[in-house]
From TrEMBL:
Domain N-acetyltransferase stretches: 3-159
Name assigned to this protein: GCN5-related N-acetyltransferase
Keywords: Transferase
CDD domains linked to this entry: NAT_SF
A GO term, aspect molecular function: acetyl-CoA binding
Top-rank taxon, per record: Bacteria
Gene3D superfamilies reported for this sequence: 3.40.630.30
Any one Pfam family match given in the protein's UniProt record, by short name: Acetyltransf_1
Annotated Gene Ontology cellular component terms: cytoplasm
Cross-referenced InterPro entries: Acyl_CoA_acyltransferase, GNAT_dom, NAA80
């Protein structure tokens, strides 16, 4: 498995946008726009073509095929400050789930966040048990209902 910046593999944007639209396209963000359509997501993902500034995205490939993606971004949940840092958009294609790709990608995001002097990362998950994130040392902060979905907000301190 190889992990790269989306900036170095921009041709993967359409595939990631389709994943995101298929997985989370039903979520109503209240804007009245189709903000989670594949086309809208392709436009949004172009903002992640960065290497040393946030937002950015990492992608995992195996044998030249995209298998996972994750974002380092600002404010994924409007209940938190606009300058808060978030791990978001973590997606592993179904055929590669359970083989460590997600965990490796999450740790790569944490490493990149540390390089950018991020002191604390948040995430939100629909898995109210915390799942993999809990196993990786993320701590539960609160359960919230956001965009009509029950979510667990988790946090990880990056200062050692």
């Amino acid at each position: 498995m190889e992990i790269n910046l989306l900036k170095d593999k921009p041709d993967l944007i359409p595939k990631i946008a389709k994943w995101y639209s298929d997985e989370w396209g039903y979520i109503d963000d209240g804007s009245g726009k189709e903000s989670r359509s594949t086309t809208a997501l392709e436009i949004k993902l172009a903002e992640y073509l960065n290497s040393d500034t946030i937002p950015l995205m990492l992608v995992a490939t195996k044998n030249q095929s995209l298998i996972a993606a994750a974002q380092l971004r600002f404010q994924e949940n409007s209940r938190y400050p606009s300058d808060s840092h978030w791990l978001g958009g973590v997606y592993v294609c179904e055929s590669h789930r359970g083989n460590g790709a997600g965990q490796a990608l999450i740790e790569a995001i944490v490493t990149k966040a540390k390089q950018l002097n991020v002191q604390q990362l948040y995430l939100q998950t629909e898995d109210l048990s915390g799942g993999l994130y809990k196993k990786m040392g993320w701590k539960a902060v609160e359960e919230v209902k956001y965009c009509g979905i029950d979510l667990l907000i988790m946090q990880r301190d990056l200062i050692t």
